[in-house]
Amino acid sequence: MILADSITYQGISALCRSQGLDLRGLPFDRGGMIADALETACANWRPRAVFLVPSLHNPTTVTLSDERRQALAAVARRHSVLIIEDDVYRPLLDSGPPSFAMLEPELTVHVSALSKSVAPGLRYGFVVAPRAFLGNVAAALRIDCWSISPLTALIATKLIESGSAARIVKFQQEELRRRQAVLREVFAQFDVQTDLTSTHAWLHLPELWRGGAFARACRQRGVAVLPADAFAVGRETIAHAVRINLGAAPSIHELRKALTLIVDLLNAGHLEISGAV
After folding, report:
1. 147-154, long-range: CB within 8 Å, 24+ apart, which pairs?
2. Disulfide engineering: 133 pairs with which of 43, 129, 150, 196, CB 3.0-4.6 Å?
3. What pTM did the predictor assign?
4. Which of 46, 112, 22 shows the shortest CA–CA distance to 13?
5. What is the torsional sign of CA 238, 49, 137, 126?
6. Which CATH number, 3.50.50.60, 3.90.1150.10, 2.40.128.110, 3.10.450.120, labels domain 166-276?
7. Residue 44: helix, strand or coil by DSSP?
């Protein structure tokens, strides 16, 4: 059994299904996964691992505080539960709490990549794992893809060694700050969860709207958002919210236009709901 936030990155659900693993979602709040919920689940279910996206969580944008990380790590330590740390967004943070790989190196498989912070087309990732797991990680990679393109590895290496990767990340942060400023301006009256350098935002929908209906209504107006159920683990009741991708728009002008359409739809409220369902 694998544990995760009840709303989390869709890839872990697909991976667990493909491997025949039981994935179960745990409660979370605006600070992330709740340590007491993890404690109860570990005591009752004896899971093999817990999957966490601790920095700029996809989709909720939460970055776990140092206190929350310490609490979750302590639970994993007590129950000898492996931590799978998907930290692909961490480079976009100006600064952040210690990773789980730093807090619990013998219990953490730390996964990162360049695709979110440097370039989407640069499919180059990294895994840091406890020595006891390195053989299994290497075997899984051989089975899954054997090897990445040598040209991709060369490009990634040159970008990192020359300092270009760090400069690109800095540029991405500055652009995201500009886009987040537009988001805060346009959505000033709504409950939006986000971060200054997040690539996405988590919009809590006002009364009457449901995630799926709102996403369909947005799509009819040419704007794509993802409802909470796209990220849901299991079939429990989920939040009425949608994820907004701030990095997809080709320009800030196009982003503002899309966000304004979303706000117009929110303000229309019940006048639009019947036609969207």
Report:
1. 148/123, 148/124, 152/122, 152/123, 152/124, 153/124
2. 129
3. 0.92
4. 22
5. positive
6. 3.90.1150.10
7. helix
Terminal Cα distance for the chain, rounded: 36
- Which position has the token pair 């093999």? 48
Neighbouring C-beta atoms of residue 205, cutoff 10 Å: 20
Determine what percent of the chain is predicted with pLDDT higher than 90.
83
Alpha helices in the chain (DSSP H): 10-18, 35-45, 66-79, 100-103, 131-144, 150-162, 164-186, 211-220, 252-268, 270-276
**27's tokens:** 């409660």
Q: What is the pLDDT of residue 96?
A: 83
Which pLDDT score, from 0 to 100, does residue 148 have?
A: 80
Tokens of 87: 């930290």
The pLDDT tens digits of the residues spanning 80-111 come to 999 999 999 999 999 889 999 999 999 999 99
Note the residue count of the chain: 277
